[in-house]
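To the team - nicotinamide-adenine-dinucleotide complex, inputs and output below.
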Amino acid sequence: MNIEQVGVVGAGQMGNGIAQVFAAAGFQVILCDVSAEALNRGMDTIRSSLARLEQKQKMSAAETGSTLARISTAESLDALSNVQLAVEAATESEILKDQILRDLDRVCPPRAILATNTSSISITRIAAATKRPEQVIGMHFMNPVPLMSLVEVIRALQTRDETYQQVEALCRTLGKVPVEVKDGPGFVANRILMPMINEAIYARFEGLADADGIDTVMKLGMNHPMGPLALADLIGLDTCLAVMEVLHRGFGDSKYRPCPLLRQMVDAGYLGRKSGRGFYEY
Ligand code: NAD
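Output:
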């Protein structure tokens, strides 16, 4: 099956980035969100990201113009009735994702591939919510999507080889580097990254150092390009908490217990960059 039209569900920081890279690679993209405001914000983010790429001469004015022209928006999944691929990138909640996948299964053509950008939730369970589990797969892009080359490609237990191979080839068409990963809580990226971020939050919770001190230790001491608390703010603290909860439940091991400070900050609406306040102010 030739993929020409792609639906992206969720226009938040991941969804708009995913829409941008597909459109830049020549695909027609329909970006869907339940919130008109999120769609407007998402399109604004794409426009400024493309303008930056043009300024840095990584794309010509003609390319940024045609990339934008390939993206349309919709507030209903019904707009995805002709896509060959849908990539779900809505809020990290299993109930929500199951519902979206069921809706996509109903709306999208029978041969379409349904991918999810979940950070941690079982692809096998998400696939089981549909009537086409062999065409469901995880496509875990990294943030910010236009700049980060990795895509974890996660096979559900049910994923057919052909689906995997098509998605792997597609990642290369997007200029990304795919890594094949088996389904398991947090996959590889967040199995390793999120406990480190959670531990950094414990260090802050226990007052071992201030946020800048903790981040400086990891940047200068471990040569990380960004400290774990700044990275948590970039990812979104709600997403970090959701991933820790998946790891905690999935392994039943107390070492994955989300730090109480993380939970409290999410309760307070301090979600990081996207809300203007997290471990830092924006
Ligand atoms: P976000 O909060 O920026 O955006 C989520 C968007 O989903 C919002 O615009 C919201 O309106 C929309 N949404 C909610 N319900 C919807 C529905 N029923 N239909 C359509 N849209 C709906 O979140 P994000 O950071 O973009 O994360 C999205 C997904 O990507 C999550 O599964 C997350 O775990 C994953 N992810 C996030 C990162 C990261 O660094 N933030 C990295 C990789 C993967």
